[in-house]
Amino acid sequence: xxxxxxxxxxxxxxxxxxxxxxxxxxxxxxxxxxxxxxxxxxxxxxxxxxxxxxxxxxxxxxxxxxxxxxxxxxxxxxxxxxxxxxxxxxxxxxxxxxxxxxxxxxxxxxxxxxxxxxxxxxxxxxxxxxxxxxxxxxxxxxxxxxxxxxxxxxxxxxxxxxxxxxxxxxxxxxxxxxxxxxxxxxxxxxxxxxxxxxxxxxxxxxxxxxxxxxxxxxxxxxxxxxxxxxxxxxxxxxxxxxxxxxxxxxxxxxxxxxxxxxxxxxxxxxxxxxxxxxxxxxxxxxxx
Length: 288
Known about the structure:
This protein is of the alpha/beta class. About 55% of the residues lie in helices and about 10% in strands. The protein contains 13 helices and five strands. Strands 2-1-3-4-5 form a five-stranded parallel beta sheet, sandwiched between helices. Helix 12 packs across helix 13. The longest helix is centred in the last third of the chain and has 23 residues, at about 240-260. It starts with a helix and ends in an 11-residue tail after the last helix.
């Protein structure tokens, strides 16, 4: 719930944010309230409560209330509270490991809560049938894009990761219906990623955006949007470190979905790639 609220908050009005913050901070208390009671508690209206419920992914307030009751029961069962602590300059390496591991787990959990399974499946289905897949990303997102392209190549798909913005656009011009373009940008407003995706979209390719901002400009040109978690940035942990974790989960889910759809060809292709590289994993024989 907290992950959804953090991700969707920028798209909400201030009154909707008050409702969202209330249900995220006190799920047990809000689960006991009627729609009128929650509206009074947050100084909003019943219509605002219903709109907020729908924006968070529930058909109506009744469904949100049931989800809150389930979350409250889980928390009361003894689940450990989530505590996020920033890394300090004088932290020991053991503390750094513990804090980073905690944040990585939280990022993965938040992204899992944000990802829409139907959007993922539709994107994977399109990629499985694609004549070609182009992936766009810059900076840390380019590393995630390269990871996805390499995985797709190993199961027999034609896939390219473009980090040069000029080459990305000139390649996007060559895409056609039946091809797929994937843009990876946490902010949702990286121009060097948006431009090739827009070009691919205009040429009829199926387009996918992996982003932490479902309201970002990149989504205007995306047929499918895979939302990753909001970033918790600190002085010693830049945004790119946190966003990369969520992006990797999203593209791993995408890859597995493609592999499932193409299993009959993907499995032999993976075996062939393992065999082709097997000799490189054998330790060299020591001379006598």
